Description:
It contains ten helices and 18 strands. By secondary structure, the protein is an alpha/beta fold. Residues 38, 40-41, 191, 193, 249, 264, 271 line the site of ligand FHN.
Amino acid sequence: MTSRTDWFEHDRFGMFVHFGLYSRPAGIWKGQRNRHPYSEWLQASEQIPRAEYRQLAQHFNPTRFDADTWMKTVRAAGMKYFLITAKHHDGFALWPSKASAYNVMEETPFKRDILGELAAAAGRHGVKLGFYYSHWQDWEGTGGDICTVHMENAEYVHPTQAQFEDYWQNKCLIQIRELIDNYDPAFFWFDSWHDYQNKGRDFTGAYLTLARQNELIALIRRLSPNCLINSRINFTAPSDQVDYMSTMDNEFPDRGFAKPWETSGTLNESWGYHGLDFRWKSTRSLIQNLVGNAALGGNYQLNVGPTGEGEFQPAAIRRLHEIGEWLRVNGESVYGTQASPLGTMPWGRITCRRMDQGVTRLHLHLWDFTPATALLVTGVRNAPVQAMVLETGQRVKTEVGAQGVWVELPHELAGLSLPVIAMDLKEEKELCP
Ligand code: FHN
Protein backbone atom coordinates (compact mmCIF):
# COMPACT_ATOMS: atom_id res chain seq x y z
CA MET A 1 0.00 0.00 0.00
CA THR A 2 1.36 3.38 -0.89
CA SER A 3 0.94 6.51 1.15
CA ARG A 4 1.78 10.12 0.47
CA THR A 5 4.66 9.98 2.96
CA ASP A 6 6.45 7.11 1.16
CA TRP A 7 8.91 9.41 -0.62
CA PHE A 8 9.64 11.25 2.60
CA GLU A 9 10.42 8.07 4.51
CA HIS A 10 12.56 6.80 1.67
CA ASP A 11 14.56 9.97 1.09
CA ARG A 12 15.77 10.54 4.67
CA PHE A 13 17.89 13.62 3.95
CA GLY A 14 16.96 17.16 2.90
CA MET A 15 18.20 20.73 2.96
CA PHE A 16 16.65 23.55 4.96
CA VAL A 17 17.45 27.13 3.93
CA HIS A 18 16.87 30.28 5.96
CA PHE A 19 17.10 33.24 3.61
CA GLY A 20 15.59 36.69 3.96
CA LEU A 21 16.12 40.33 4.89
CA TYR A 22 18.18 39.28 7.92
CA SER A 23 20.75 37.53 5.69
CA ARG A 24 22.45 40.81 4.88
CA PRO A 25 22.97 42.26 8.40
CA ALA A 26 23.98 38.69 9.29
CA GLY A 27 23.77 38.88 13.07
CA ILE A 28 25.30 42.34 13.46
CA TRP A 29 23.23 45.45 14.02
CA LYS A 30 24.74 48.92 14.29
CA GLY A 31 28.15 47.41 14.92
CA GLN A 32 26.99 45.11 17.72
CA ARG A 33 26.44 41.39 17.71
CA ASN A 34 22.74 40.53 18.04
CA ARG A 35 21.67 39.36 21.46
CA HIS A 36 19.80 36.41 19.98
CA PRO A 37 22.14 33.76 18.49
CA TYR A 38 19.86 33.29 15.46
CA SER A 39 20.44 36.01 12.88
CA GLU A 40 16.85 35.69 11.61
CA TRP A 41 15.69 36.97 15.00
CA LEU A 42 17.32 40.34 14.39
CA GLN A 43 14.11 42.35 14.43
CA ALA A 44 13.04 40.91 17.78
CA SER A 45 16.42 40.65 19.38
CA GLU A 46 17.36 44.26 18.70
CA GLN A 47 13.79 45.53 19.10
CA ILE A 48 13.97 47.33 15.81
CA PRO A 49 10.91 49.45 15.03
CA ARG A 50 8.92 47.90 12.21
CA ALA A 51 9.43 50.76 9.77
CA GLU A 52 13.18 50.68 10.32
CA TYR A 53 13.47 46.92 9.88
CA ARG A 54 11.36 47.11 6.75
CA GLN A 55 13.93 49.39 5.17
CA LEU A 56 16.24 46.37 4.97
CA ALA A 57 14.15 45.37 1.96
CA GLN A 58 15.58 48.30 0.04
CA HIS A 59 19.03 46.74 0.43
CA PHE A 60 18.08 43.13 -0.22
CA ASN A 61 19.81 42.45 -3.51
CA PRO A 62 21.32 38.93 -3.60
CA THR A 63 22.79 39.25 -7.07
CA ARG A 64 24.88 36.10 -6.69
CA PHE A 65 21.79 33.96 -6.06
CA ASP A 66 21.54 31.18 -8.63
CA ALA A 67 18.83 28.57 -8.13
CA ASP A 68 20.64 25.96 -10.22
CA THR A 69 23.80 26.34 -8.15
CA TRP A 70 21.80 25.81 -4.98
CA MET A 71 20.10 22.73 -6.38
CA LYS A 72 23.42 21.30 -7.58
CA THR A 73 24.69 21.64 -4.02
CA VAL A 74 21.58 19.88 -2.72
CA ARG A 75 22.31 16.98 -5.08
CA ALA A 76 26.03 17.00 -4.35
CA ALA A 77 25.24 16.63 -0.63
CA GLY A 78 23.10 13.56 -1.32
CA MET A 79 19.99 15.44 -0.27
CA LYS A 80 16.68 14.64 -1.92
CA TYR A 81 14.46 17.51 -0.88
CA PHE A 82 14.76 21.21 -0.25
CA LEU A 83 12.90 23.50 2.13
CA ILE A 84 13.12 27.29 2.16
CA THR A 85 11.72 30.03 4.37
CA ALA A 86 9.05 31.34 2.02
CA LYS A 87 8.12 33.66 4.88
CA HIS A 88 9.91 33.68 8.22
CA HIS A 89 8.74 35.43 11.40
CA ASP A 90 9.54 38.89 10.08
CA GLY A 91 6.66 38.49 7.63
CA PHE A 92 8.66 39.20 4.46
CA ALA A 93 7.73 37.03 1.46
CA LEU A 94 10.30 35.66 -1.00
CA TRP A 95 7.74 35.65 -3.79
CA PRO A 96 5.46 38.26 -5.39
CA SER A 97 2.49 37.92 -3.03
CA LYS A 98 -0.77 39.70 -3.66
CA ALA A 99 -1.67 39.41 0.02
CA SER A 100 1.11 41.75 1.16
CA ALA A 101 3.36 44.24 -0.58
CA TYR A 102 6.07 43.23 1.87
CA ASN A 103 7.70 40.94 -0.64
CA VAL A 104 10.77 40.53 -2.81
CA MET A 105 9.15 41.85 -5.97
CA GLU A 106 7.58 45.00 -4.60
CA GLU A 107 10.00 46.25 -1.97
CA THR A 108 13.49 45.17 -3.00
CA PRO A 109 15.82 46.19 -5.81
CA PHE A 110 16.22 42.49 -6.63
CA LYS A 111 12.71 42.14 -8.07
CA ARG A 112 13.00 38.45 -8.87
CA ASP A 113 10.67 35.67 -7.83
CA ILE A 114 13.11 33.66 -5.73
CA LEU A 115 10.64 30.86 -5.07
CA GLY A 116 9.69 30.66 -8.73
CA GLU A 117 13.31 30.29 -9.75
CA LEU A 118 13.90 27.67 -7.07
CA ALA A 119 10.77 25.72 -8.02
CA ALA A 120 11.88 25.59 -11.65
CA ALA A 121 15.43 24.55 -10.71
CA ALA A 122 14.17 21.94 -8.25
CA GLY A 123 12.17 20.41 -11.10
CA ARG A 124 15.22 20.39 -13.37
CA HIS A 125 17.38 18.70 -10.74
CA GLY A 126 14.83 16.19 -9.46
CA VAL A 127 14.63 17.73 -5.99
CA LYS A 128 11.36 17.90 -4.04
CA LEU A 129 10.45 21.38 -2.90
CA GLY A 130 8.95 22.46 0.41
CA PHE A 131 8.08 25.76 2.02
CA TYR A 132 8.66 26.92 5.56
CA TYR A 133 5.85 29.29 6.42
CA SER A 134 5.71 31.13 9.74
CA HIS A 135 1.96 30.95 10.28
CA TRP A 136 1.75 32.08 13.88
CA GLN A 137 4.55 34.62 14.32
CA ASP A 138 4.42 37.47 11.81
CA TRP A 139 6.09 40.71 12.78
CA GLU A 140 4.99 42.81 9.82
CA GLY A 141 2.28 44.42 11.95
CA THR A 142 -0.80 43.07 10.21
CA GLY A 143 -2.13 41.06 13.16
CA GLY A 144 0.28 38.11 13.36
CA ASP A 145 1.63 37.25 16.79
CA ILE A 146 4.90 38.51 18.24
CA CYS A 147 7.23 36.98 20.82
CA THR A 148 7.14 38.84 24.12
CA VAL A 149 10.14 36.88 25.39
CA HIS A 150 12.32 38.93 23.07
CA MET A 151 10.20 41.91 22.08
CA GLU A 152 9.89 44.51 24.78
CA ASN A 153 9.50 47.50 22.47
CA ALA A 154 6.11 49.15 23.04
CA GLU A 155 5.32 48.75 19.37
CA TYR A 156 5.20 45.00 19.75
CA VAL A 157 2.19 43.70 21.65
CA HIS A 158 0.17 40.54 21.21
CA PRO A 159 -2.66 41.06 18.73
CA THR A 160 -6.28 40.81 19.78
CA GLN A 161 -8.06 37.70 18.54
CA ALA A 162 -9.86 39.87 15.98
CA GLN A 163 -6.55 41.25 14.70
CA PHE A 164 -5.07 37.78 14.50
CA GLU A 165 -8.12 36.51 12.65
CA ASP A 166 -7.71 39.34 10.16
CA TYR A 167 -4.07 38.36 9.61
CA TRP A 168 -5.04 34.70 9.41
CA GLN A 169 -7.72 35.17 6.76
CA ASN A 170 -6.13 37.97 4.76
CA LYS A 171 -2.45 37.14 4.83
CA CYS A 172 -1.70 33.65 6.10
CA LEU A 173 -4.36 31.59 4.33
CA ILE A 174 -4.14 33.63 1.13
CA GLN A 175 -0.38 33.22 1.00
CA ILE A 176 -0.63 29.47 1.58
CA ARG A 177 -3.04 29.30 -1.34
CA GLU A 178 -0.64 31.36 -3.48
CA LEU A 179 2.26 29.10 -2.64
CA ILE A 180 0.29 26.03 -3.69
CA ASP A 181 -1.19 27.62 -6.82
CA ASN A 182 2.10 29.10 -7.99
CA TYR A 183 4.68 26.48 -7.01
CA ASP A 184 2.92 23.22 -6.07
CA PRO A 185 5.15 22.34 -3.10
CA ALA A 186 5.61 18.72 -2.00
CA PHE A 187 5.45 19.76 1.65
CA PHE A 188 4.87 22.58 4.12
CA TRP A 189 6.93 23.07 7.23
CA PHE A 190 5.06 25.13 9.83
CA ASP A 191 6.80 26.50 12.86
CA SER A 192 5.61 26.69 16.41
CA TRP A 193 7.47 25.62 19.48
CA HIS A 194 5.14 24.99 22.33
CA ASP A 195 7.03 23.15 25.01
CA TYR A 196 5.64 19.73 24.27
CA GLN A 197 7.69 18.20 27.06
CA ASN A 198 5.26 19.89 29.41
CA LYS A 199 7.57 22.23 31.17
CA GLY A 200 4.57 24.48 31.47
CA ARG A 201 5.05 27.20 28.88
CA ASP A 202 2.44 27.44 26.14
CA PHE A 203 3.53 30.11 23.72
CA THR A 204 1.05 29.47 20.98
CA GLY A 205 -2.24 28.02 22.13
CA ALA A 206 -4.23 31.23 22.17
CA TYR A 207 -3.72 31.86 18.46
CA LEU A 208 -3.07 28.45 16.99
CA THR A 209 -6.40 27.06 18.07
CA LEU A 210 -7.50 23.62 16.93
CA ALA A 211 -10.08 25.27 14.68
CA ARG A 212 -7.42 27.35 12.89
CA GLN A 213 -5.09 24.40 12.64
CA ASN A 214 -7.86 22.34 11.05
CA GLU A 215 -8.82 25.18 8.73
CA LEU A 216 -5.24 25.41 7.47
CA ILE A 217 -4.93 21.66 7.03
CA ALA A 218 -8.28 21.48 5.22
CA LEU A 219 -7.20 24.22 2.82
CA ILE A 220 -4.01 22.39 1.92
CA ARG A 221 -5.76 19.03 1.59
CA ARG A 222 -8.36 20.55 -0.70
CA LEU A 223 -5.86 22.29 -2.98
CA SER A 224 -3.08 19.70 -2.92
CA PRO A 225 -4.04 16.31 -1.47
CA ASN A 226 -0.51 14.87 -1.59
CA CYS A 227 1.23 17.82 0.02
CA LEU A 228 2.78 16.88 3.37
CA ILE A 229 2.29 18.88 6.57
CA ASN A 230 4.59 18.76 9.60
CA SER A 231 3.58 18.60 13.24
CA ARG A 232 4.92 21.99 14.26
CA ILE A 233 1.73 23.44 12.84
CA ASN A 234 0.89 23.30 16.53
CA PHE A 235 2.90 21.52 19.14
CA THR A 236 0.25 21.91 21.81
CA ALA A 237 -1.98 19.38 20.12
CA PRO A 238 -0.79 18.48 16.65
CA SER A 239 -3.72 17.12 14.76
CA ASP A 240 -3.83 13.43 13.81
CA GLN A 241 -4.02 14.73 10.30
CA VAL A 242 -0.42 15.97 10.13
CA ASP A 243 1.82 13.74 8.05
CA TYR A 244 5.05 13.77 9.97
CA MET A 245 6.54 14.84 13.25
CA SER A 246 9.23 17.48 13.55
CA THR A 247 11.28 17.43 16.72
CA MET A 248 12.47 20.67 18.23
CA ASP A 249 15.56 22.25 16.69
CA ASN A 250 18.68 20.06 16.71
CA GLU A 251 16.88 17.53 18.87
CA PHE A 252 17.90 13.94 18.20
CA PRO A 253 15.61 11.64 20.15
CA ASP A 254 16.63 8.25 21.46
CA ARG A 255 13.52 6.57 20.08
CA GLY A 256 11.37 7.05 16.99
CA PHE A 257 7.75 8.11 16.60
CA ALA A 258 4.72 6.19 15.31
CA LYS A 259 4.47 8.64 12.41
CA PRO A 260 7.28 9.48 9.99
CA TRP A 261 9.52 12.07 11.62
CA GLU A 262 12.49 14.33 11.20
CA THR A 263 14.96 16.53 12.99
CA SER A 264 15.86 19.89 11.54
CA GLY A 265 19.31 21.00 12.55
CA THR A 266 21.92 23.65 11.95
CA LEU A 267 25.39 23.44 10.43
CA ASN A 268 26.65 25.95 12.97
CA GLU A 269 24.42 27.75 15.50
CA SER A 270 22.31 30.28 13.61
CA TRP A 271 19.77 29.27 10.97
CA GLY A 272 20.11 32.46 8.97
CA TYR A 273 23.58 33.46 7.76
CA HIS A 274 25.59 34.91 10.65
CA GLY A 275 28.90 36.65 10.09
CA LEU A 276 30.16 35.88 13.61
CA ASP A 277 28.97 32.31 14.02
CA PHE A 278 32.01 30.10 13.83
CA ARG A 279 30.60 27.12 15.71
CA TRP A 280 30.68 24.78 12.75
CA LYS A 281 29.82 21.15 13.40
CA SER A 282 32.14 18.45 12.08
CA THR A 283 31.21 16.46 9.02
CA ARG A 284 31.50 13.34 11.13
CA SER A 285 28.92 14.56 13.65
CA LEU A 286 26.56 15.63 10.85
CA ILE A 287 26.72 12.17 9.25
CA GLN A 288 26.13 10.64 12.67
CA ASN A 289 23.04 12.82 13.06
CA LEU A 290 21.73 11.54 9.73
CA VAL A 291 22.49 7.90 10.46
CA GLY A 292 21.34 8.11 14.08
CA ASN A 293 17.93 9.30 12.95
CA ALA A 294 17.73 6.79 10.08
CA ALA A 295 18.47 4.00 12.57
CA LEU A 296 15.33 5.12 14.44
CA GLY A 297 13.26 5.52 11.27
CA GLY A 298 13.70 9.30 11.05
CA ASN A 299 14.90 11.96 8.62
CA TYR A 300 17.40 14.79 8.87
CA GLN A 301 16.89 18.23 7.41
CA LEU A 302 20.14 20.12 7.53
CA ASN A 303 20.09 23.89 7.39
CA VAL A 304 22.18 26.29 5.35
CA GLY A 305 22.10 30.07 5.72
CA PRO A 306 23.10 31.71 2.43
CA THR A 307 24.80 35.11 2.59
CA GLY A 308 23.02 38.33 1.74
CA GLU A 309 24.53 38.01 -1.75
CA GLY A 310 22.83 34.65 -2.13
CA GLU A 311 25.77 32.28 -1.82
CA PHE A 312 26.58 29.36 0.45
CA GLN A 313 29.66 29.83 2.63
CA PRO A 314 32.75 27.71 1.87
CA ALA A 315 32.51 26.06 5.32
CA ALA A 316 28.96 24.97 4.49
CA ILE A 317 29.86 23.76 1.01
CA ARG A 318 32.77 21.69 2.25
CA ARG A 319 30.63 19.90 4.82
CA LEU A 320 27.82 19.30 2.35
CA HIS A 321 30.19 17.89 -0.23
CA GLU A 322 31.86 15.62 2.31
CA ILE A 323 28.51 14.25 3.44
CA GLY A 324 27.64 13.70 -0.22
CA GLU A 325 30.90 11.83 -0.81
CA TRP A 326 30.19 9.59 2.15
CA LEU A 327 26.65 8.95 0.88
CA ARG A 328 27.88 8.16 -2.61
CA VAL A 329 29.56 5.02 -1.29
CA ASN A 330 27.34 4.35 1.73
CA GLY A 331 23.97 5.70 0.59
CA GLU A 332 22.30 2.32 0.42
CA SER A 333 22.65 2.15 4.20
CA VAL A 334 20.52 5.30 4.55
CA TYR A 335 18.03 5.82 1.68
CA GLY A 336 15.02 3.54 1.82
CA THR A 337 16.16 1.83 5.00
CA GLN A 338 14.20 1.16 8.14
CA ALA A 339 14.83 1.36 11.85
CA SER A 340 16.45 -1.78 13.15
CA PRO A 341 14.60 -3.44 16.03
CA LEU A 342 18.00 -4.54 17.37
CA GLY A 343 18.38 -1.02 18.75
CA THR A 344 21.46 1.04 19.49
CA MET A 345 24.78 -0.79 19.79
CA PRO A 346 27.77 0.36 21.89
CA TRP A 347 29.85 0.46 18.70
CA GLY A 348 27.35 2.32 16.47
CA ARG A 349 23.96 2.10 14.79
CA ILE A 350 22.05 -0.33 12.58
CA THR A 351 19.69 0.34 9.67
CA CYS A 352 18.02 -2.46 7.76
CA ARG A 353 16.24 -3.33 4.54
CA ARG A 354 14.42 -6.29 3.07
CA MET A 355 16.15 -7.70 -0.01
CA ASP A 356 14.99 -10.26 -2.59
CA GLN A 357 14.71 -13.99 -1.85
CA GLY A 358 14.01 -13.66 1.85
CA VAL A 359 17.27 -11.88 2.63
CA THR A 360 17.36 -9.23 5.33
CA ARG A 361 20.29 -6.84 5.12
CA LEU A 362 21.61 -5.16 8.25
CA HIS A 363 23.83 -2.12 7.75
CA LEU A 364 26.27 -1.94 10.62
CA HIS A 365 27.41 1.67 11.02
CA LEU A 366 30.75 1.54 12.80
CA TRP A 367 31.26 4.65 14.93
CA ASP A 368 33.43 3.42 17.76
CA PHE A 369 35.57 0.42 16.90
CA THR A 370 39.11 -0.89 16.73
CA PRO A 371 40.27 -2.40 13.44
CA ALA A 372 41.58 -5.97 13.66
CA THR A 373 39.28 -6.82 16.58
CA ALA A 374 35.74 -8.23 16.53
CA LEU A 375 32.43 -6.69 17.46
CA LEU A 376 29.22 -8.30 18.61
CA VAL A 377 25.84 -7.79 16.96
CA THR A 378 23.58 -8.87 19.78
CA GLY A 379 20.22 -10.41 19.01
CA VAL A 380 21.14 -12.16 15.74
CA ARG A 381 20.77 -15.95 16.01
CA ASN A 382 21.65 -17.35 12.58
CA ALA A 383 24.88 -17.31 10.63
CA PRO A 384 24.93 -14.49 8.05
CA VAL A 385 24.92 -15.45 4.39
CA GLN A 386 27.61 -12.88 3.76
CA ALA A 387 29.06 -9.66 5.11
CA MET A 388 31.16 -7.01 3.39
CA VAL A 389 32.46 -3.48 3.80
CA LEU A 390 30.09 -1.33 1.75
CA GLU A 391 32.65 1.18 0.52
CA THR A 392 35.33 -1.29 -0.59
CA GLY A 393 33.54 -4.60 -1.12
CA GLN A 394 35.98 -6.33 1.24
CA ARG A 395 34.52 -9.55 2.61
CA VAL A 396 34.21 -9.81 6.38
CA LYS A 397 34.17 -13.02 8.45
CA THR A 398 31.41 -13.66 10.95
CA GLU A 399 30.76 -16.26 13.63
CA VAL A 400 27.65 -17.06 15.61
CA GLY A 401 28.08 -16.93 19.39
CA ALA A 402 25.80 -17.31 22.39
CA GLN A 403 24.70 -13.65 22.45
CA GLY A 404 24.74 -12.91 18.75
CA VAL A 405 27.02 -12.72 15.75
CA TRP A 406 30.68 -11.75 16.01
CA VAL A 407 31.99 -9.68 13.10
CA GLU A 408 35.73 -9.69 12.46
CA LEU A 409 36.85 -6.18 11.61
CA PRO A 410 39.60 -6.09 8.99
CA HIS A 411 42.60 -3.92 9.79
CA GLU A 412 42.01 -2.04 6.51
CA LEU A 413 39.01 -0.32 8.15
CA ALA A 414 41.53 2.01 9.76
CA GLY A 415 41.64 4.01 6.53
CA LEU A 416 37.88 4.52 6.23
CA SER A 417 35.65 7.17 7.69
CA LEU A 418 32.48 5.98 9.43
CA PRO A 419 32.54 2.64 7.58
CA VAL A 420 29.47 0.50 7.05
CA ILE A 421 29.35 -3.30 6.94
CA ALA A 422 26.42 -4.81 5.03
CA MET A 423 25.46 -8.14 6.60
CA ASP A 424 22.91 -10.41 4.90
CA LEU A 425 20.76 -12.86 6.80
CA LYS A 426 18.15 -15.39 5.80
CA GLU A 427 15.10 -16.36 7.81
CA GLU A 428 15.47 -13.31 10.03
CA LYS A 429 12.55 -11.21 8.82
CA GLU A 430 11.79 -9.95 12.29
CA LEU A 431 15.13 -8.13 12.21
CA CYS A 432 13.59 -5.74 9.67
CA PRO A 433 9.81 -5.75 10.16
O1 FHN B 1 12.26 30.76 15.67
C1 FHN B 1 12.51 29.80 14.70
C2 FHN B 1 13.94 29.83 14.24
O2 FHN B 1 14.25 31.10 13.76
C3 FHN B 1 14.14 28.78 13.17
O3 FHN B 1 13.36 29.06 12.04
C4 FHN B 1 13.78 27.44 13.72
C5 FHN B 1 13.90 26.30 12.73
O4 FHN B 1 13.38 25.15 13.28
N1 FHN B 1 12.38 27.44 14.19
C6 FHN B 1 12.10 28.43 15.20
C7 FHN B 1 12.61 28.05 16.52
O5 FHN B 1 12.29 26.73 16.82
